[in-house]
Amino acid sequence: MLQHSSSLCRSEQQQNQANNITSATVKSSIFTVSLLFSSLCLAQSISFQQAEQNVLQDSYSTKANQALQQASQLEAEAVKGLGLPRVDLNVRAYAFHNELDIPLGAAKSNLEQSLSNGVNSKIDEWQNSNPNLGGLADPLKEGLNQTIHDGVGLIPDEYQVALNDQVIRPTVSIMMPLYTGGLTSSAKEVANIKAQRSLLNTKQQQDVQRFELIQAYFNAQLQKQLQASSQFNLQSMQKHYSNALKLEQQGFISKGQRMQFEVARNNAERAHQNTQASYKASLFQLNNLLQSSQITELSTPLFVNSTQSLALNSLLKSFPEQSSLIQKMQMDTQLAKANVKVQNAAKKPSVFAFGEYSLDDKQNWIVGVAARYNLFSGIDKNKNVQAAELQRYASELITERAKQEIENIIYKSYSEVVTAQQSDQLLQQNVKAAQENLRIQELSFREDMGTATQVIDAQNALSILKTETALNAYKYVMSLAALLQSHGSIEQFQGYINQPNTRYVR
Question: Is 146 exposed, middle or buried (0-12, 13-18, 19+ CB in 10 A)?
Fold first, then answer.
């Protein structure tokens, strides 16, 4: 009975262990599947058009330029009110103590003279009305005058007065410029030009971003093509090596011939490893540019337009109206001209009306017109005007020089575009010839009419031509991008991808 119970317990334990193992296996399988599914979900394919939208909307450069553009617009709006009256609310709170010495000497003399004259006049009147008094008038006058002199002499010659007060005085002041010599209008002009220039700066920055994206996106496509070409070459060399190994075992070829294929296979594998590393690096660069880490596939291939839709003369003629760089430099010339006006305005007088009204119980007010003309400030205003004129002249010359450089870039890029188109046609013919030559060499080798070296050389030649085809397509894309950017129409690049008579390199 005990044995039966123990066996039942062991059986139950084994069953529990089996269940646990099964449960763990299921959980592990579910976890593995979920990881695989999540990795597949994280993987992302992106077209060039989608990448362009992402860069222009979400990149750091785009957001920074948007902020700068808004700042320039706000600065232009901020000076719209220049020339209108300026109204200020002023509050003065102060306490003062003032000691004054008031001179009393003149006042004492005037007082003594006035009293003496008054007394003498009264005595004379009294003597005239009483002629019997005789000689009493004169002694009386002397006595009274002496008394007045002594009494006035008691008054000090100076009196010190101390004034103390605490004042809080609110006022409203208004100042209206009537004439500033053109300074107000020039300041508004400068702000408006800067606002317009910020728009051109945004467009120029977007063009730079487009060019950087074209370079990164299609470089990744180039590296992908190079990796595919090296992989194809590796697989072909592996097939040749396997066939050679069989032929060696059958006694049809020597060990040396087989080893030639082995060396070629190893070289192809090493080249494939290098292209894999380059492809991963290019994908990292593209993901970094797009602020992503999930892009693994690119849906827009390298391409070559079979026909040229642009005319060189038309490009050379129209680029000044299209190029944001040239337009910015023209704006710089306008700013230099406005600066000349500012410096001339500094030489002229300014006239303004003013007024102030007290808000306390005294209700004092003042209005008037004032003029100001600087006679000397230590700054030679005439030299400032001359310097501004030279800056304007230099800006015009730099603009013309920039036009020359852009013309050179347009001509060079146009020539490279045409050359790449011609090379693509020749490369297509060479690839077909190389494929046929490889087929012939393989057949000759199997029939013992050719050598291993000939097969390897034919295979390498085909691989090189496929690589050159991809490189030439990338050269075409970048030459086209440089042409459109220098012309100022790189936003039209997407249209060239979808043009008719376009060959895609996959």
Answer: exposed
